[in-house]
Each structure stands twice: as structure tokens, then as C-alpha cells.
Amino acid sequence: MIDITEKGAALRAASEGRFNELPVHNPDVECCSRERIRAIQLEKLIAQVEWTYERVAWYRDQMDEMGVKPSDIKCLEDVRKLPFTDKHALRKTFPYGMFAVPLDEVVELHSSSGTTGKPIVVGYNRHDMDVWNDCIMRLVQMAGVVPTDRVQMAFGYGMFTGGFGLHYGLQRLGCMMIPAGSGNTERQIQMIQDYGTTVLVATPSYAMHICEVGEKMGYDWETSTLRVGLFGGEPCPPGLKAEIESRMHIVCTDNYGLTEVMGPGVSGECLAERDMQHIAEDHFLWEVVDPETGEPVADGEMGELVLTPLDKQAIPVLRYRTHDLTRVVTEPCRCGRTSARMQKVRSRCDDMLIIRGTNVFPSQVEDVLSSIDGVTPHYRIVVDNETGLDRMVVHVELKPEAFSDSFEEMDKFRKHIEKELKNVLLVASKVKLVEPGGIERSFGKTKHVQDLRK
Ligand SMILES: [Zn+2]
């Protein structure tokens, strides 16, 4: 047996296929047969629909209008008879209209950022907190986190579900929590040294920033106690993660979740297939639908993820439309888990830019850039239509070794990137090369797109 707490041990074991040496939190549900997990889901779905119909007027009205009764749910596919839920429904019932338990029973309140209008408020009772902890304990162990770890939380706390969600789950596992919060990067690095931090929780872009600041301070990441990065809060492009892993000498995984259905912990990455995340299927029923029609797509096809939490008491949610695009596969994974895996979400239905009639996703730009030597994973897309036509400019940050004083060389490189982008995006864009470090780093969610069109 290897010592999983040794720096690099988890990644090494995974790369050598020794997945049986990595911990699995709850093999009974993470590694069971498809039949068993579907039976658990059906039993919970029936109870959840009854719970919701009896206690939440909004759902009762919707279901009565559609002529559906809880007793109509007899198999998992019957979930399609139920109404969808979206952000608007949750906003309209602000703050407590969707609650299914007396407020006295609620032990925690969180909300989404609410960039426009009212935020979305979610509450948890003790049962919901237990479920949440369970989900977090699963995903952190997929990265090799153990109870003796010291975890520095570089997420902001506050109303955002990411901070406290991970905090409680990691603490329940037995980890020593260091609630650093976000920002003050030099202090973060000092704390890693002082407290012997072994696990860092951060957005991937902030982890990259910590890495760069540490290098500038002369901190040696290779001999650092840090060995695991737990990412969330924003999608993590594969190129960025690989770079952080090699420069900080840590293993990094990211997880998926959203406030409306719980927070982080809906699914998490294992070390066998780095592009996929295992869904906590005994807690969440997933569907993948065509975003236009709401009808199911064929097995394994891309579509919009729809989630029904199966264990949520304080705010039950039926068929939540995430607007996230993914595909889900149900073949057993090399890590030994049999739970369904969703491809990491790289695009949202509403991230899509329409440039002169062509659909463009920021994730496509990321993929092109990650295939070109000499550019960093940092970029920005600026769109305007000052001249009457849509114009897209991609700001690309150079690595120091690719930076040159020769105008000719730089111009040739720029044209090369423009050509590569055109091949994939099918629409022309301009590239602006930016010197190393020239793209502003953010401490929270990275904003890759600036749409200035009027
Ligand atoms: Zn796996």
C-alpha cells in the first residue's frame, strides 16, 4: 500500500492504474450495480415528489395544471411528467416561497449572487446539511484527501455556497480547516508555510495566481507541504489545471454544483478520467435534454443538464434546468466507481456568443489556445459592433519564452493563432497579443467575455 498523504502519491497511483489504493467514501452507493442505484433513485423520487406536492404551493399548482399527481410517478422515466424549474420560478418566490419546512427548522441560508434583480435564496435543515456533507466527503476523497489533511480555504465565505459547503464537508471528514478566505495572496502563501497546509481550496484562476505570486516570492512549490488543490466556482480549462499541477507539484480536481440544487458536490472528478465527474446519483436524478425542446437527447449525447435533488427537504426542487451543456455516460469507470459520469461543463446555453450569425463558445477558444505552444491559458474575448458588424477580438497572453522584440515574428505568430481560431470557430476574429502577465487575474470567477455590442 502506498502512503496517500505523500506528495504526488495519489497522481502516481492513478497514473499506474492502482485505483484500489485510493479511498472511496461510500462504496455501497458509489460502486453498486446500475439496477441498485436506479432502485434507490426511484424510491427516493417517489417520496420527494410527494413531499414537494404536499408542501410547496408553487409545485402543487403547476402539477394540478398539468394534471399530474404524485401517484403518477411509477418509474424513473415518469420524471418527465413533472414541471421544469428555472431561476425565474425561484426568484418570483423570493425569499421563502419555495420552502417546504417551517423556518425554525432551517439551520443555514445561502443565496446566489443575483447580478440582476433579486437573488435566489436557498435554505437547509439538518438533514440537508448531512446530505451536503456526504457529497463533499465523496468528492474530496476522489482527489486523495484524508482526515489528517490541513485545508486552507481560499474561497470567499459569505452567502456563496462554495465556501461553507466545502468547509463543513471537509471538517466532517476530520480535516483541520484553515478559513483564510479569498485575497491577500502573499499572506496565503505565508499561511501555507506557517501552518503546513496540505490542501488548497480555490478557484482555478486564483490558484494560478497564488502559484505565480509564490514563484515571484521565491517560494519552492516542489518542497511545499501542499499536495492537493480542490477547485470550484468556475469551469477549469484542462490546460490551466495541467499547468497548475506541474508548477505547484500538486494534484488538482474540480467539482460541479450549483446553489439552486445544493451547492458544490453534485459531481466530482476522479483521477481515472480527468475530463469527467462522478454524479452523486443517490442524491441527484439527472436528465440531459435538448435545450430548445426540453426533450431527452439520445444516450451519451450533449445537451442541457437537468437535475432533481432526491433528498432535499427544506427547498425541494424538481427538474432544475441548469443551462449547463454536458453529456452523461453510465459505463463503469476505471477508478472502480459505477456512478454515472458527466463531462465537465465547459459551456452554458447562455454563454454562447452569436458572432455574425455563427455560434461561438468561449470553451472553443480555450481549446484552440491550449493547443498552441507559447501562449498561456489566460485570455479575454472582446466583442463590439461599432462599425455595424460584429467584431471579435481575442486577447491572448504570451508565455515569456514566446515573447520577442521582432515585430515580424510577433505578427507571424498572431496570424497563425487567427488562422487556428478561424478553423475551429468558423468565423474570423482578430488576435491581440498581450505581454506575459498582461491579462488581469481575478480572485473570483474569471470573466472571459466582454460583450460591448449595443
Ligand atoms: Zn472514476
Q: Give the biggest beta sheet.
A: 9 strands, mixed
Strand content: 15-25%
Portion in helices: 25-40%
CATH superfamily of the largest domain: ANL, N-terminal domain
Oligomerization category of the chains in this entry: single chain
Strands side by side in the biggest sheet:
4-3-5-6-7-8-9-14-13
Which word captures the global form? Answer: globular
Low-confidence stretches: none
Averaged pLDDT, please? 93
Structural class, from helix and strand content?
alpha/beta
Q: Please identify, by name, the CATH architecture of the largest domain.
A: 3-Layer(aba) Sandwich
Task: Quickly describe the structure.
The chain is 31% helix and 22% strand. With 454 residues, it is an alpha/beta fold.
Give a quick set of tags describing it.
nucleotide binding; phenylacetate-CoA ligase activity; ligase; globular; GMP Synthetase, Chain A, domain 3; 454 residues; 12 helices; single chain; nine-stranded mixed β-sheet; 21 strands; nucleotide-binding; Rossmann fold
Structure report:
There is one protein chain. By secondary structure, the chain is an alpha/beta fold. The strands form 5 sheets. It has a 9-stranded mixed sheet with strand order 4-3-5-6-7-8-9-14-13, with helices on both faces. Helix 9 packs parallel to helix 10. The protein has 2 domains: 9-34 and 124-346, Rossmann fold; 352-451, 2-Layer Sandwich (GMP Synthetase, Chain A, domain 3), CATH 3.30.300.30. The protein has helices spanning 9-15, 27-30, 34-55, 57-66, 87-92, 126-142, 161-173, 185-195, 204-217, 238-248, 362-370, 407-425, and strands at 108-111, 121-124, 150-153, 176-178, 199-202, 228-231, 251-258, 263-269, 276-279, 284-289, 303-309, 320-326, 328-329, 341-343, 347-348, 353-355, 358-360, 375-384, 391-398, 430-434, 449-451. It is globular and about 75 Å long. It is built from 12 helices and 21 strands. Bound molecules: zinc ion. Zinc ion binds next to loops.
